[in-house]
Design brief:
The chain is mainly α. About 40% of the residues lie in helices and about 5% in strands. The chain has one domain. α1 packs parallel to α7 and α7 packs antiparallel against α8. The two termini are about 30 Å apart. InterPro entries: DUF1985.
Length: about 270
């Protein structure tokens, strides 16, 4: 039987870049999680966990073990695919795909298509301006993670709705955008929080996927490097895509929680393949 010819490898077999240091990323901020937990009542925190974005909070609470070497190894096995929003890795003789479909299946997030995904129409109202001032954020910018942490520490007398907005923005800055803690996020997206129902039902999975793939596109992995976005999903993708890997080193959790991003405790250290 003739099999279709695969695209070439980005790196010659046996000559993949060695990891120099752990991959830098910004989606495991314990200070942010602690400030969020202390700012909300027990009922508010549980409501957040059970929301459509609660998977991020549950993931943080389970203490997932990040395996940088495993993810770096996978990036070294990439095929030269011209599609920016697909990644194929050749693991042994079989190629494995990571795309929006896999991201959606692993995270359970809303990945529906929507026009103007990153530039939705959102009116700048006096209420929004007031809320931005309360957060200490310039009205033309989105909040940074550092600004969210500072706001969480002084929001005790805010209304329940404003604390909920701040909690959602914690997830937006800390996991969906996943940038350097001091970097501003996109105001066009952050402003959606003024309409809580719209924010809750927005396809944030699609946004998060795009942030991650934009950061990975043409990434130089031959030295030290940083990846924006929810990079831990690649580790869980490896557990799901490579037979036996998740069972042997992923530390699968009892009763296989759903979605799969919550089904593994992960493993740190050098042992990965």
């Amino acid at each position: 039987m003739n099999f279709p010819e695969l695209p070439r490898r980005l790196y010659t077999l046996g000559e993949e870049p060695e990891p120099h240091n752990s991959i830098s990323y910004h989606t495991d901020n314990t200070k942010l999680h602690t400030a969020l937990r202390e700012a909300l009542t027990d009922a508010e925190f549980e409501e957040l966990k059970e929301s459509r974005l609660g998977v991020f909070i549950k993931f943080k609470e389970q203490g997932f073990g990040w395996a940088s070497r495993l993810v770096h190894h996978l990036l070294g096995l990439k095929l030269d695919i011209k599609k920016k929003y697909e990644m194929w890795c050749l693991v042994g003789p079989e190629p494995a795909r990571f795309s929006l479909l896999e991201f959606e299946n692993i995270t359970g997030l809303n990945c529906d298509y929507i026009e103007d995904l990153e530039t939705p129409e959102c009116e700048v109202t006096p209420q929004m301006v007031s809320f931005w001032e309360m957060m200490g954020v310039h009205r033309e910018a989105g909040p940074s993670t550092d600004q969210i942490i500072a706001a969480l520490k002084r929001c005790g007398d805010w209304s329940r709705e404003d604390r909920k907005r701040l909690a959602y923005l914690s997830i937006f800055t800390g996991f969906i955008e996943g940038k350097k803690f001091s970097s501003a996020t996109r105001a066009t997206l952050a402003r959606l929080v003024m309409d809580l129902e719209r924010f809750e039902n927005y396809p944030w999975g699609r946004v998060a996927f795009k942030v991650l793939m934009d950061s990975l596109w043409n990434k130089d992995i031959t030295g030290c490097y940083t990846v924006d976005g929810f990079i831990q999903v690649l580790q869980v993708w490896a557990y799901e895509a490579i037979p036996g890997l998740g069972a042997s080193i992923g530390l699968p959790r009892a009763n296989s929680p759903s979605p799969p991003i919550l089904a593994y405790d992960g493993s740190r250290g050098r042992r990965f393949m």
